[in-house]
Design a protein that fits this description.
single chain; alpha/beta; Enolase-like, domain 1; TIM Barrel; 2 domains; seven-stranded parallel sheet; four-stranded antiparallel sheet; 21% strand; binds magnesium ion
Length: 383
């Protein structure tokens, strides 16, 4: 329920593209990222208070059909006109404004919707985690390790991650860079380590025997082995495997999550709020999965400290029972965009910022200025 009877109406939306160099290139089955172009969204109400969102779309349409450039266009052309000047009392009313007659563009919609949640939390002087229904004081963190050029390199990184406290090691795999890598990492980390693999859709059902052989590595889960549209084939594959499948790319909406559960196409969900269109559908997927005893965790999209703040807030909800890809700022960035960088303790825990209003990722204005490459301000022109 809204604790604030005063309506919100956005006066301006400021789009900014920032460019951040990754500490090291990140390689998955569909490509390599070395420089991250990030779209930050600032929503500003009539009183001049700001909320921040981050669009998770990449530079190329590899993970999803959306890119940073299509998101920019979608916000300017279709999202901003629907939301600027519109009155709403609670941020859960924003998502429905962005749906009728407007297909897709979920990452663009999410960036604005999540900024509205941040704005509402800041205006109420409450942490975003509280507004979302979160409970945890800290969230357990896993590492996501990109595809390495040699088995030895991967083993070294996985071992270093466990030594640093990470609660889960996820390794990216692809055909040819999988079985031997998994075997070596399992042998090095021992049978107790929480280990999983993410294929980003690099396999087909013809690889079923090959994937079934991974059962011997006792993985926590295999994430998205098949195509993003392949719920039916994931269900066929799940019947062949003892290892639970986790779906990421396939879960683009509440309905897709419901279908996954019904079809037994996966037994774990990686929730990325950007992928499903924002916090409102994320909360519904969380509720649905909890009711079906399907564990969820929060994935990562090479976010800056703003997106990290949103993800950490979401991961504080009770159904997020598995470690999320919520690495500290230093894992990806030489210097993050936020004043207080995200850190992880030796137990692999990241603190939820219950001591401040909003998502906990407050922008460092100087850092913002030096990384911004383009800006556009969208205003309410209805008077
Ligand atoms: Mg994934």
């Amino acid at each position: 329920m809204s604790g604030d009877p005063t309506s919100f109406a956005l006066a301006r939306i400021v789009l900014r593209e920032i460019s951040l160099a990754l500490v090291e290139p990140f390689r998955i089955s569909s490509g390599v990222t070395s420089q991250r172009r990030i779209l930050l969204v600032e929503v500003i109400d009539g009183g001049g208070l700001s909320g921040w969102g981050e669009c998770v779309a990449g530079e190329e349409p590899t993970y999803s059909p959306e890119t940073i450039d299509t998101a920019w266009l979608a916000i300017r052309r279709w999202i901003a006109p629907r939301i600027l000047g519109m009155a709403w009392d609670h941020p859960r009313q924003v998502w429905p404004l962005l749906q009728p007659g407007f297909r897709g563009h979920r990452m663009a919609k999410a960036a604005v919707e999540m900024a509205c949640w941040d704005l509402a939390a800041r205006r109420a002087g409450r942490p975003l985690a509280e507004l979302l229904g979160g409970e945890r004081k800290e969230v357990a963190t896993g590492i996501s390790i990109g595809i390495q050029s040699s088995v030895g390199e991967l083993v070294e990184r996985a071992q270093a991650a466990v030594d640093a406290g990470y609660r889960k090691v996820k390794m990216k795999i692809e055909p040819g860079n999988d079985f031997e890598f998994l075997r070596a990492v399992r042998a090095a980390l021992g049978s107790e380590a929480a280990l999983m693999a993410d294929a980003n859709s690099a396999y087909t059902l013809d690889d079923s025997d090959h994937l079934a052989a991974f059962d011997q590595f006792d993985l926590l889960m295999i994430e998205q082995p098949l195509g993003r549209q392949d719920l039916l084939r994931h269900a066929q594959l799940q019947r062949r495997l003892a290892t639970p499948l986790c779906l990421d790319e396939s879960i683009t909406s509440v309905q897709r999550a419901a279908d996954m559960i019904e079809l037994d196409a996966g037994r774990v969900v990686n929730i990325k709020p950007g992928r499903v269109g924002g916090f409102t559908p994320s909360l519904e997927i969380h509720r649905l999965c909890r009711a079906a005893s399907v564990p969820v965790w929060c994935g990562g999209m090479l976010e800056s400290g703003v997106g990290r703040g949103h993800n950490v807030s979401l991961a504080s909800l009770p159904g997020f029972t598995l470690p999320g890809d919520l690495s500290p700022s230093s894992r990806y960035w030489r210097r993050d965009i936020v004043e207080q960088e995200w850190t992880m303790d030796a137990e692999g825990l990241v603190a939820v910022r219950w001591d401040r209003a909003g998502c906990g990722g407050d922008i460092d204005p100087r850092r913002l200025a030096e990384t911004t490459v383009r800006t556009e301000t969208l205003r309410c022109n209805t008077g």
